[in-house]
Amino acid sequence: MMTKSIPNMFTLGNLFLGMVGIILATEGRTSMAAIMIIVAMLLDGLDGRVARALNAQSELGKELDSLSDVISFGVAPALIMYTVAFTDINTALAWTVTAIFPMCGAMRLARFNVRPGIPGYFIGLPIPAAGGVLATLALFHEEITAPYMIFAVLLLSYLMVSAVKYPNFKKIGIPKTAIKFTPLVIIGAVMVAVFFPEQTSKLIFVPLVLYAGYGLKQNFRRLSRKKRRKKDDHNSDEAYSSSDR
């Protein structure tokens, strides 16, 4: 019975860190708040792998994971961004943009739970990646002005509910014998993050942006292919009409 609860402990740890991130954001400790989201991402990446390794997957775990993700990667990153970048802009605009992000994240998670995906891919940007980008992007608030931050929030929100395919690395499992070392990995990651919060967050920002950008590039490629197909079909129709004359 204890074995079945281990993956849920990782998930609850993810939720706990999301709440700590929210509290830190309200206290103005943005770098540490972003670190909480990054470590929560680590726990979120481990809970499913541990569940598969222990054969402890359950509907309870699936629902708990989604509820935790809404807080840790939806509400918390949006609040972090709000506290550092949106407090001086129009209140209605700031509240609306801040609320849109977790709303799209919730839609993304609900769709994931009820629709079968494509093997090896996520449909839409996963909320942990979107939340990680937003939380770490907030650290650049002194270099990036509010309009660009608003655009980034809306773009990430769109990518979560889009039909863009993203590679699914969660299916990469871990050996059962390696599970006992996961607490050491987490402790090590936390220690590095706590001692070097801003540097760690900004370093993590790069691969997360590349992952989000990959889907954006795929979307543009898909749209250009569709446009080219329409053009080819139109040219074919014109050629067929000309041959009938």
UniProtKB/TrEMBL annotation:
Record keyword Flavoprotein present: no
Ranges where the record places region Disordered: 225-245
The keyword Transferase is assigned to this record: yes
Top class in the EC scheme: transferase
Assigned keywords, A-Z: Lipid biosynthesis, Lipid metabolism, Membrane, Phospholipid biosynthesis, Phospholipid metabolism, Transferase, Transmembrane, Transmembrane helix
Transmembrane segments: 7-24, 67-86, 122-140, 146-166, 178-197, 203-220
CC per GO annotation: endomembrane system; membrane
Annotated EC: 2.7.8.8
Residue spans of biased composition, Basic and acidic residues class: 232-245
Record protein name field: CDP-diacylglycerol--serine O-phosphatidyltransferase
Species annotation: Paenibacillus solani
